[in-house]
């Protein structure tokens, strides 16, 4: 029990980063009506599919000694970042509508603050999210390593070599590497 309590902050951190945006979008999709419902379900899919493919599929693959290649990880990361950015824009739009009852001067200042903060957060989140997605996905290529077909994946400046298992998956165990 103590071991669980020690690692609880990290579990909550990962839950908030990965699952909370999808849960919030699901709540918005269930609440919406008409064409907004259709858009909300699309937004939910933009968040849930990368979690299912990269997360759930990654766990299934790792149980078989495999891992996703970059051609799967990169679109999943980019789609998730787009979904979180869209959720942030939806929150800013909600705030924008909710301050309509404020006094005219306060409403103008409030809307300027929402616009400035929202623009900064969206740009920063998108920029760092796309960079971290690209770093997470890496870059790979198929080559011959010690007489067998292998996948070389770039991590920072080094190349790690894994067994080739097809165009979408690679082996999880590192066979070697080079600079």
Which descriptors apply to this entry?
5-stranded antiparallel sheet, single chain, 179 residues, elongated, alpha+beta, 2 domains
Walk me through the structure:
The chain is α+β, with helices and mostly antiparallel strands and 179 residues long. It has 2 domains: 2-137; 138-179, no CATH class. 68% of the residues lie in helices and 20% in strands. The protein has 4 helices and 5 strands, in the order ααβααββββ. The protein has helices at residues 2-31, 35-63, 70-98, 104-137; strands at residues 66-68, 139-145, 148-155, 158-164, 169-178. A 5-stranded antiparallel sheet has the order 1-5-4-3-2. Strand 4 (158-164) and strand 5 (169-178) form a beta hairpin. Helix 1 (2-31) packs antiparallel against helix 2 (35-63), helix 2 runs antiparallel to helix 3 (70-98) and helix 3 (70-98) packs antiparallel against helix 4 (104-137). It is elongated, with a radius of gyration of 21 Å.
Topology of helices and strands:
Elements: H1 2-31, H2 35-63, E1 66-68, H3 70-98, H4 104-137, E2 139-145, E3 148-155, E4 158-164, E5 169-178
Antiparallel strand pairs: 1-5, 2-3, 3-4, 4-5
Helix pairs in contact: 1-2, 2-3, 3-4
Order of helices and strands: HHEHHEEEE
Give the fraction of residues assigned to helices.
55-70%
Tally of alpha and pi helices? 4
Largest sheet: 5 strands, antiparallel
Global morphology: elongated
Poorly predicted regions are: none
Q: Domains counted in the coordinates: how many?
A: 2
């Amino acid at each position: 029990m103590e071991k669980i309590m020690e690692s609880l902050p990290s579990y909550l951190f990962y839950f908030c980063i990965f699952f909370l945006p999808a849960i919030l979008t699901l709540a918005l999709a269930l609440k919406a009506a008409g064409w907004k419902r259709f858009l909300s379900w699309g937004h939910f899919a933009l968040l849930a599919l990368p979690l299912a493919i990269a997360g759930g599929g990654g766990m299934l693959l790792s149980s078989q000694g495999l891992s996703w290649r970059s051609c799967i990880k990169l679109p999943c990361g980019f789609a998730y970042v787009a979904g979180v950015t869209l959720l942030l824009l939806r929150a800013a739009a909600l705030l924008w509508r909710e301050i309509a009852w404020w006094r005219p001067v306060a409403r103008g200042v409030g809307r300027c603050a929402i616009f400035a903060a929202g623009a900064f957060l969206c740009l920063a989140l998108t920029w760092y999210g796309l960079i971290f997605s690209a770093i997470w996905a890496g870059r790979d290529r198929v080559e011959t390593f010690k007489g067998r077909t292998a996948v070389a994946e770039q991590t920072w400046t080094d190349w790690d070599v894994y067994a080739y298992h097809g165009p979408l998956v690679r082996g999880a165990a590192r066979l070697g590497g080079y600079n």
